[in-house]
Amino acid sequence: MSRKNETPVLVLSLLITLGLIGGVAWWFTRGLFSGQNGAQSNSSLNSQTGNGQASFTDRSSTGTRVLNPQSAAAEKLAGAQAMANRNYTQAVTDFEAALQTNRNDPEALIYLNNARIGDQKAYTIAVSVPMATSTNPALEILRGVAQAQTQMNQTGGMGGIPLKVMIVSDDNNPTVARQVADALVKETEVLGVIGHFGSEATLAAAPIYEQGKLVMVSPTSTSVQISNAGNFVFRTVPSDRFTATALSRHLLNNLGKQNAAIYYNSASDYSRSLKDEFATALTSDGGQVVAEFDLNNSGFNALDTVKQASQQGAEALVLAANTATLDAALQVIAVNRRTLPLLGGDSIYNPKTLQVGGENAVDMVVAVPWVLLSNPQSEFAQTAKTLWGGDVNWRTAMAYDATQVLATAIGASPDRTGVQQNLASPDFSLAGATGTVRFLPSGDRNQAMQLVVVKPGERSGYGYDFVPLP
Description:
It contains 16 helices and 15 strands. It is 46% helix and 15% strand. It is of the alpha/beta class and 470 residues long. The protein has a 7-stranded mixed β-sheet with strand order 8-7-9-10-11-14-15, with helices on both faces. It has a 6-stranded mixed β-sheet with strand order 1-3-2-4-5-6, with helices on both faces. The chain has a two-stranded antiparallel sheet with strand order 12-13. It has 2 domains: 43-237 and 380-437, Rossmann fold (3-Layer(aba) Sandwich), CATH 3.40.50; 240-368 and 450-468, 3-Layer(aba) Sandwich (Rossmann fold).
């Protein structure tokens, strides 16, 4: 069979594989909650996401309900019930048992930390994540928060006062994010917010935090529009401008190519931001974007777009997909079959890329804010491995730094105005997991991105790994 005839079969196989993965995940999630009763488990959010029907009480928890639809072990549910009954001693026992069953559960660790606090005085922050709709990225963020909270409270907290964490499930939906922000502003004990996940949700919520004078620190939202979101908006992750610069210079200086085709999602602020910033950076450096393809187009055909890109003189393909269009980006990887060099933004840094992309993803270069293998012996990396039993990624590290940032500011001035003033001060500096954290007047972090490349390996368990580019 010729390569030309193999390609449609390859695309069909990829679509079937993605469908099977989604089907198994659906079955698994349904199976976890079949036959369960009680208020501790928020499986009902799965049928209410995207329309804001679930109340803030249903979406938020400091331990009295389980928000993760994929983790509702009996011990964890028992711990939530004990927390609801204010039986904190029993809750500690139950959450410890849950972590013995699954130590890689940051929600359980956060609730355990909160149970240990009980009714004593604590400083409270919230973390808003897409628990029901993008569970894996949500857990990655929560691992960073949980690790920072654990270390903070084990070392005496902030002047002897521990850190309590409220988890909120926002579906990564702008409408829900606005509702969450409004509710958090009214929760007067909340002194700062970590979130949101996607740039669309962060941009939607930002004006409400600004008006309510409640600091938000995003560990993952990279759109350049966030730079103008207000005085109470910060982020520990560098903006898309840094990603675009890193990818453009690699294309020109390392690969010796000038012409690129770019894939993006027109419905995503993050994806459009990265596309525009890359086009600007490449043009400024002497190259050009010769074609643009919308992954969100209802008639999108990966094979046709790769052919068009080649016909228009593209020497490389740039994947500026967001999480929602990762599957479409994986189709591009498959049909390209390593013919043209591949570059990707941070959303491509996903285990699914290694699992589904496989051999076709080898040598693809992806820009990320932080990579564990650049310093695997660091205190943060070693503690993370002990806590979670494996490697963590940049979302965990950035969330860890966001938690440390808020805790440091709260420790200096435990009120909302004081937190903002501390972070906005030109003297603010924190030695974080990802390097020194300082904020520009815009609330942005001034830090270069790192490049990783897909190579055969065994760390991920899929036969391929993201490793630092030599």
